[in-house]
Structure formats: C-alpha cells, structure tokens
Amino acid sequence: MKNIAVIGSGVMGRGIAYTASLNGFNVSLHDINPEALEKAESYITSLFQKSVEKGFIQEEEKKIALDNLTYSTDLKKSAAEADLAVEAVLEQMELKVKIFKELDEVCPAHTILATNTSTMSPTEIGAATSRPEKVIAMHFFNPVHKMKLIEIIKGLDTSTETVEKVQRVGEQLKKQTVEVNEFPGFVTSRMNCLIGNEAMNIVMEGVASAEDVDKAMKLGLNHPMGPLELADLVGLDSRLRNMEYLYQTLGEKYRPSPILLKYVKAGKLGRKSGEGFYSYE
Asked: 3-hydroxyacyl-CoA dehydrogenase C-terminal domain: from which residue to which, for each copy (predicted)?
C-alpha cells in the first residue's frame, strides 16, 4: 500500500492528500475542475510551509512530501497505479456511485476503493462495482492533518482483508481507527448531527445565543469546539445534506432544524460563504 489516489480536491480531499504525502505515500490528487486543483495545490504548499515555520516538520520532510504529490484532471492517470483510491466529493449518492463505477474501470484489480463519507452506505456504493469486497468507507475528520480518528465502516460484502489493509493505512497515517458495522450515520455523525441540530433549535427558540450555546458546550461539557462553530466549519449545506439523509433513513428525530433550512436557502453556509451562525470577515 504505497500509492493513493484521492478523488476530489475540496477541503477533505486536499487534507487527505497532504496527510498521506507527509506520511510516505505517493499521492495523486484528482479533480475535474482545474481551478479547484490549482487552489488545492496552493493550499497544500502553503500548509507545508506553515508546518515548517511552526516546527511541526523539517524542511527535508516538506521536500520529500511535495515530491510525493502529483495533481491531475485525468482520472485514469491518477488511478493507474493506485493501491487505494479515496473518494472525497459531496455527500450525494448518485455522484459517489458514478465515481466508483469509473474507478472500478480504471483502477488495477487489487485497488481498494474507499469513500470518505460521514453518513452514506458503502454497501450501496460497492454494489455498483465489480469488487464490492474491496469497497469500504474511511471517514476522515476536518482538519485531516490535526484530527486523530478515522472511522472505518465495512459494507455487507467488505472482506476482512480489506478492513485490515485499511487499518494499516490508518496506522501509517498516524491515526487511530474504530471499526464500525454499516448503519446510517455510523457512530460519530449520528451523535454529532443530533447535538448540532439541537443546538440550532435552542438558538431558533431564543433560549440562548449561538455564542453562549457554544461556550456552554466547550466549558461545561469539555467539547473542543462548539456545535455551531463546527457546523459553520463543515458547511451548513453539507450539514443539511447529512441531516436529510439521516432523516430519510433513521426517522423523525433527525428532522433538520428549520433554522438550518432557512440559513441554507439564504446562502448563509458558514465559513465558506462568510456567514452562518457567525460572521466571518
């Protein structure tokens, strides 16, 4: 397991690419959008430089990691020698299935296909391929280079060998892993979405401000980040997609808060749009 193809150069994809290249993997970061790929390359290069300046890594480590990285808009080229392909695109099942069908065609027979999903079914995704035993979910957390966990979710047909190989990849990435049997929302998203949704309801009902809700969770329950700060970081549109999926699959308690719907309709998506539950200058 030396070569990793990362599909999608957004926040999660570029974070996975950075972390994997720093930990000795040859990484090809793919995106169909050349501008998005350029932004990802600029971000990753800047992050390496900041890591050197802050003393987290040495200059030589940065050079080696940058040499391990390539960028491509050609999926076939990116995946041609991949031992592991990690898809990191929007939480939309149709899009993920489409990408996995393409990966199934262009990847070598031994390649493990992983989806970086926080809620969706690796069984359903794997069923669209000729190698469901090699399909798995690897749920990374944002920011990838700082967060210590990877949730590993095996589908109905995922083999034990695939799980073990992905666990070893997690170890090489210097992450802790938890193994989860597939169920909508897995472990962390089920818990996190409920907490965040209730926080939104509290703000909507006028019980407390967003600032005080987050302060209470951080100081009273020792959360490192408030649930509304986290929702803004993830993106309120992404959070809404997750909530809608969980609502469809798990029922009423996951009904999205009306204030979340309102903010997304207004284009208030969190940090990426400049405004969500907080304003970002």
From this structure: 185-280
